[in-house]
Amino acid sequence: MSSRLPRQIQTTNNSPSSTNPYQQIKMPIPTSTGITESAVIPAPLASVWHLIKLGKFADFWSALKSSSVVKDTSEETDIYKWEFKDGTVWEVKQEEHSTIDHFITYSIITAEPSLTFTSALATIRLFAITTGKDEGSTFIQWSGLFSSDADAGVIEDARPCRRSKVEVCRLHTYAYCMRLREEL
Questions:
Q1: How far apart (Å, rounded) are the C-alpha atoms in residues 145 and 150?
Q2: Which CATH number fits domain 31-183: 3.30.530.20, 1.10.760.10, 3.30.160.100, 2.30.30.110?
Q3: Which of 17, 66, 68, 87 is most exposed by smallest CB count within 10 Å?
Q4: Strand, coil or helix: what is 36?
Q5: Share of the chain above pLDDT 70, in %
């Protein structure tokens, strides 16, 4: 009976004495392919929002060495090249951008070295904090959706990475905004 099961759920026990062919099934671990992290940036939304542009992302995310527009793409497509300090290079495509709702969505379209999954879509949302001890600050939410071929290890590896990104961006943005205040 086990030979008629789909390939990904073939039994690992070929013993004829097994009465339940599903007893020792080898299946992938079900995994949520989304992750979200958030933080408070102690700077006003107007100051932070101007840094959330893919072409200026190196001003926001300190892991980047540079961020530049990719030339010779269609007029309808915004593609940027991100060069990381560790030598990794991504080309990202801006999928959506809202100056009204203060969010940007991008996808990774190429990566060197190659990623272990097919695709990733990320959204950064900013919200003004209008009351409480953090009034005048910005709440940032950075979420990512991975293709279904990303396994549990990819998602779990992304969690501290995304937390680190949010925290580093929070500190980097705060320092950047403080420098801007001093210049005024």
A1: 10
A2: 3.30.530.20
A3: 17
A4: strand
A5: 66
DSSP string over 40-102: EESS-HHHHHTT--GGGHHHH-TTEEEEEEPSS--TT--EEEEEETTS-EEEEEEEEEETTTT
Q: What is the DSSP string of 4-24?
A: GS-GGG-BS---TT-S-TTTT
Tokens found for residue 119: 């695709």
Three-state secondary structure call for residue 27: coil
Average of per-residue pLDDT across 80-90: 93
The reply to whether omega before 113 is within 30° of 0 (cis) is yes
* pTM of the predicted structure, to 2 decimals: 0.71
- Which carries the bigger pLDDT value, residue 32 or residue 75? 75
Q: How far is CA 61 from the centre of its chain?
A: 12
Give pLDDT tens digits for 89-112.
999 999 999 999 999 999 999 999
| Residue (of 166, 163, 181) closest to 62 by Cα position | 166
